[in-house]
Design goal:
alpha+beta, 2 helices
Amino acid sequence: MPDVTITIKQTGPYSIEGEINLVDHLGQPVPTTPGKRISLCRCGASTNKPFCDGTHSKIGFLAAEKAQQEFDEKKMP
């Protein structure tokens, strides 16, 4: 099995390094460049899904933990 590292960016994409097979919802291959790191969208706003295009930084995307923290801070009297 190949070594794969997935790094979760706090308010950004999943960054994946290593040899992977990426397939769509129908099981069809999604082309990637062997040996090149890819970043997968987490915010849902990328125009290049499933890949990240940096839109998360423009829309103020917050991961669930950070979003919950900010929500809780706003609720405090």
